[in-house]
Amino acid sequence: MTDARLPAAIAVTAPAVAPMPTARSKARQQREQQLLELAQQILRQDGFTGLTMDRLASLSDVSKGTLYNHFSSKEDVLTALSVDSLQRLLQLFQHASTFSGHSRERALALHHAYHKFSAAEPTLFLCLLSAATPGVMEKSSPARMLQRQQLEMQLLQYCQQVLSDALADGSLQLPVGVSLEQWSFINWALAFGCNALFVPLRQLGLFAGLAAPQVNLHSINLLFDGMGWLPLSSGWDYQQSWQQISLKFDSAANSESTLAHSAQEQA
To answer: How many helices (H) and strands (E) does the chain have?
Structure first.
């Protein structure tokens, strides 16, 4: 049997080790993060049209000149928010990838991570779409665009890896004329569509009888069953798998909260 895992060139890789930050660079990073948190507050309150460089400068404790030292434009702020979103999502994907189930369950864990992020950070989640429009990308700094591209690639590698694992263990067969990249895109499109559309449609009074987790799970099962990914939902309780994945994320969140509380007490 041939090895269906990803070639080494596109295998999931850890980010390069960054040089030790100096006190000055730490202060800059902290100030930039505070500006991004303020920008996120503006987006929550007034939407994307309410975010301007003048507004951000007036609500912060930095001058407009200092603000432009961090961001070249308001579009660059949106791209920076999308980078922050992708970094958080990558952490969730890394945690999801450690779920000890068969390949289809591990793919389900990635979908769960995507849903968890969209529900916890709806503003940042929608920044991913807004920052991907041509008008925003054209006015964003090349360095930040490169950072976003690298993060997107790391996320894609997790998706491709679990599909590759399924091909290797025989639970999934790749039809003639269909590529791994196509299946990765379809999974990503389904995940984004379900999570991006659900809340706005509910706010319009549509689909009031549906619950977001169940919509996600049912949609994923329809896709995976259509792909012929074994075990099929008719022979496996994926509702239980979803609950086990939820418990794994909840346990990790509780552990992080305990550590943060302990650190505060020691401080």
So the answer is: 11, 0
Q: What is the pLDDT of residues 230-258, one digit of tens each?
A: 999 999 999 999 999 999 999 887 665 44
172: which 2 tokens? 């999934």
Cβ–Cβ contacts within 10 Å for residue 152, how many?
A: 18
Q: What is the pLDDT of residues 255-265, one digit of tens each?
A: 654 444 444 45
DSSP run (H or E) holding 228: none
Domain 81-169+178-254 has CATH 1.20.200.10: no
Query: How many Å apart are CA 9 and CA 59, to the nearest integer?
Result: 45
pLDDT band at 12 (very low <50, low <70, confident <90, very high): low
Contact call for residues 172 and 227 (beta carbons, < 8 A):
yes
Whether the full predicted model's pTM is greater than 0.90, yes or no, is no
Q: Name which CATH class applies to 24-70.
A: mainly alpha
* Encoded tokens for 18: 């960054």
Tokens 């434009």 correspond to 73
- The one-letter code for the residue type at 68 is Y
Alpha helices in 97-237 (DSSP H): 103-120, 122-130, 134-138, 142-169, 180-203, 212-227
Query: Which residues lie closer than 8 Å to 160 by C-beta, 6 or more apart?
Result: 6, 10, 180, 181, 184
